[in-house]
Amino acid sequence: MIKLAHEKQRILICGGTGCISTGASNLLESFKSTLKAKNMDCEYDVILTGCHGFCEQGPIVIIEKDNTLYCQVTIDDIDELVSQHLAANQLVERLLYINPIDNRRISSHKDINFYKKQHRILLDLCGKIDPENISEYINHGGYAALQACFEQKPTDIIEEIKVSKLRGRGGGGFPAGLKWEYTRNADGDPKYIICNADEGDPGAFMDRSIIEGNPHSVLEGMLIAGYAIGSNIGYIYVRAEYPLAVKRLRIAIDQAEATGYLGENILGSNFSFQIKIKEGAGAFVCGESSALMHSIEGHRGMPRSRPPNSTKKGLWSKPTCLNNVETFANIPLIILMGGNEFAKIGTENSTGTKVLALTGKINNTGLAEVPMGISLRDVIFDIGGGIKDGKKLKAVQIGGPSGGCIPEEMLDLPIDFDSLYKAGAMMGSGGLVVLDESTCMVDLAKFFLEFTHNESCGKCTPCREGTYRMLQILEKITDGLGTQDDIIHLERLSNNIMNSSLCGLGKSAPNPIVSTLRYFRYEYDAHIEDKTCPSGVCKKLISYRIDSMNCKACTICLKHCPSQAIIGERGKPHLIVSENCTRCGICLEKCPFQAVKMG
Amino acid sequence: MCELKCNTEHPEVANIIEAHRNNPGALIIVLQKAQSVVGYLPKEIIKQIATGMNLSESKVYGVATFYSQFHLTPRGENIIRVCMGTACHVRGAVTILEKLQEQLHIKSGETSKDLKFTLETVACIGACGLAPVITINDDTYGKLKPSQLKDIINKYR
Q: Does this UniProt record's set of keywords contain Metal-binding (chain B) (predicted)?
């Protein structure tokens, strides 16, 4: 790769949505003006990059010359960073990352476990380049893969993708090369390429981060697909809820057109390609390929039964190859390193890397790219920094609403398509939510069911009525009114819905129930038999009380209680009147003496 | 922006329709653009779009009611969105939503009578490191505790 020769030293500010929402854009301006005021602006460039992945510690600033990573930087810190670090070469200790294991401060991001254990090939340039400047991508080897493709036959490229054994990263894990081949061989003209950027899973933001951090890698992947399949037009269907991603895609497309990477006779070849952006309008089911295509056509985004598959009859009934953002971003890498080399990363049947969104009760919330086959334990404890507040891990939920829960005993399970499927979960888009002892698994299943029920398009009865009925049963159980018969009903409904729904949304909607029943049946039993919620989450099954031994009668809880459920006065231990209590937990949060107890 | 009092054709919407009349599949784009001009999609606008695009009103309603981005009723001056993503859920988003409903005297999806606030939930804003998180217009409030909500809302009253 060509290394970009920077005349100036660079200061990289994370410009991912997480950091921007905590004020990263203000840092950019402030840095620039402070450098100017100190006459140092000729020495340093300040760049708003894509997501660095380390969202928990945002806003993040990296001083590139010595790889120093500063965490949770605010405007008030800029002056010190400039005068102390940049001018005097001294670390600003208080803003360095603290290693949760030994409380040591670490300056270089290369020494932080979160980054050390990753295998960043897709995210490599996210956080290093300015995503709004095409020359930075080109100078880091961008569009070289496309150029290389023009010297090969389209069928050779498809062969290369097949050799790489790349499986679609949208969830199902269908071999990408095979899908390309089917589309190429299908009859019909024109053929379409679609990039699915409708990332609707709660707790998943990897596609968004790739687009925000390195939009050209997605465009290049689509261009190569277009050339290989024989298509001249591509659509990117992106969530309207991702305004920054949409903005950066538009800039990238404009720049690629202006520099001849998109449009007519690209780079002097016979190949022409255009890319259009279609903004989604907010419907989870539009992540399903046939629903997505209906939405591009301007209809309600409802799926249709298959066959024929989209590779034969897709958008406007023409052959269509739909892959997601991460799949396309892999393509230039495969071309550059060769399918065989790519296949060496990961496992036999799941090659390459996977970007995971780590969230929940984990210390290092963020985005991590790992080789396929890494164990859940390594991801959670090494990269994720372990469980928040020293609590005990209970389970990992992986794959979004369609996925499932994996209990603590199975943490050594490798993360790849097949082993997750066998364990009752799925890769999905790669959302990984860590759950600790304070998570109620019945409540969690209810949460996902509520989501899939709301998002069901309503076209087929098993999904429309079935998810509603399952939700009602779960509500009954979490309200303390469940019976053992309900479990039998849940199991029967799950089977029927999985077998008879029209699309993936319905087919996978019961997964959260099936997997929690499989591994956490005792929690269902506690709700049904003992009328208790062991994790203290289901409101109808918990109550608060004040331990008179610990109560200092300070009136803090009484003052904060929004429903006047606490009685007492200064010097007199307080009492909670349970009929008035709405179980909001504010008293528990506010009591300085841990006198409020749950149970 | 919030209230439309006209029985005649909305001129800007007419321009939007004109620009997209011949594009296949443009209905969603037209609805998005019309909503950004008018603020919401009152029945007059739906009718204008149906006539202008040569579609039945039921087709336009069908699309407008399917996607969560479209609103058929006026919107509040301040839009409060509570993130209900998985990370926010396990870190207490339900309690945050309940407190907001209590304090604003509206349910999720509703707009206060004085058109000051609209309260809604979103599936995930992707700022999971800040969970539980809400946004009010373009401002983000993360790592929220229920007791902080009153002061936050008062800033927008």
A: yes
Q: Which domain holds residue B128?
A: 78-155
CB contact under 8 A, B123 and A200: yes
**Inter-chain contact A283–B102, Cβ cutoff 8 Å?**
no
Closest listed residue to residue B28, CA positions, set A247, A279, A457, A249 = A279
The C-alpha atoms of residue A106 and residue A109 are separated, in whole angstroms, by: 8
Identify which of B70, B87, B140 has the shortest CB distance to residue A359: B87
> Does some domain include residue B72?
no
Residue A6 has pLDDT above 70, yes or no: no
User: What pLDDT does B2 receive?
Assistant: 44
Provide, as residue numbers in chain A, all residues whose Cβ is less than 8 Å from the Cβ of B87. Answer: 202-203, 359-360, 365, 433
Three-state DSSP at A329 gives: helix
Chain A residues with CB under 8 Å of B127 CB are: 17-18, 21, 55
- Binding-site annotation, residues of B: 83, 88, 124, 128
Q: Which of B74, B60, B75 is nearest to B29 (CA)?
A: B60
Q: Does residue B62 sit at the A interface (CB-CB below 8 Å)?
A: yes
pTM, two decimals, is 0.91
CA–CA gap between residue A444 and residue A442 (Å, rounded) = 5
Same domain? For B60 and B38 the reply is yes
Are B98 and B147 contained in the same domain?
yes
A501-528 pLDDT, tens digit each: 999 999 999 999 999 999 999 999 999 9
Same domain, B102 and B56: no
Q: What is the ipTM of this complex?
A: 0.86
**For residues B63 and B70, what is the distance between their CA atoms, to the nearest angstrom?**
9
CB A262 within 8 A of CB A219: yes
Mutate to test the interface with A, among B32, B56, B100, B124 (most CBs of A within 10 A): B124
Q: What is the pLDDT of residue A110?
A: 87
Among all residues of chain A, which has the CA nearest to that of B134?
A21
List binding-site positions of B for [2Fe-2S] cluster: 83, 88, 124, 128
- Residue B42 belongs to some domain of the structure: yes
- Domain co-membership, B93 together with B53: no
B109 inside domain: yes
Total of domains in chain B? 2
